[in-house]
Design goal:
alpha/beta, 26% strand
Length: 244
């Protein structure tokens, strides 16, 4: 599909007025009052911020409700599970505090889900440093057991009811702040596929991500060796090209 055809297809899809998106943010030691502006949020959001205290606050940003849960717990899986548990809009998008969204990201996501009625989960592109990139979606395609492992959680958007119905959650053993510091994203998508969720990928780019706290392939391999090899490395460029 050419660039012009992609643009035409995106414009032709009409979005229901009652379709809403909620961004589910996992943050660490952030000033939540400024985080919505920093991330350029245009939709509602649930922010779970791991810090040194427990608390709750909410505010409006760009006319949208931002719910903030401060917690003294640790582990990105805990934050994502808490956010998913509280998600109550039709669509949700997982995110991290260092994502800066492009204008209109919410409409892009809603149009794609409206066009793909069978899809429960859709992954999108994000701008990251090429040396740290584990995937790049060039076209629409199904995600299956042989290619699910390269997608980070922040690339994942979903129908909230589908995730709740499947009763899926993030591992508390894997991911930042846990015993094994990577792999929770692959395990989550594995469980979604196991529960018969229909997963697809799309070529649209939603946002950019800073490179300050990303491990990259080298960091993932080092962690793999130090933690006893409890998850499979499937992030190499060769693997990506073979199963693209």
């Amino acid at each position: 599909m050419t660039a012009a055809q992609k643009e035409t297809a995106a414009k032709d899809t009409r979005v229901r007025e009652d379709m809403e998106l909620q961004v589910l943010v996992a943050a660490v030691n952030e000033e939540v009052n400024n985080l919505a502006e920093k991330m350029h949020l245009e939709t509602e959001a649930v922010i779970v911020n791991q810090c040194d205290h427990f608390g709750y606050q909410e505010y409006l940003h760009a006319g949208k409700r931002i719910q903030c849960f401060n917690t003294a717990e640790r582990g990105v899986g805990r934050s994502r599970n808490q956010a998913l548990m509280r998600a109550d809009k039709e669509l949700c998008l997982f995110s991290d505090e260092d994502i800066a969204f492009y204008p209109g990201y919410g409409e892009v996501i809603k149009k794609v889900f409206e066009k793909n009625q069978d899809a429960d989960i859709i992954t999108f592109n994000f701008k990251v440093d090429p040396s740290r990139r584990t995937y790049y979606n060039q076209a629409e395609r199904r995600i299956r057991w042989y290619n699910y492992g390269r997608y980070p959680t922040y690339a994942v958007a979903a129908r909230t009811k589908a995730l709740h119905k499947a009763n899926v959650s993030f591992s508390l053993l894997f991911g930042g702040g846990a015993k094994y510091s990577n792999g929770e994203d692959s395990l989550f998508l594995h469980d979604c596929l196991k529960k018969a969720c229909i997963c697809t990928r799309q070529w649209m780019k939603l946002a950019g991500r800073s490179t300050g706290n990303l491990p990259g392939l080298r960091g993932i391999i080092i962690n793999f060796l130090l933690t006893g090899g409890f998850y499979i490395i499937i992030f190499t460029e060769g693997w990506q090209r073979f199963f693209h």
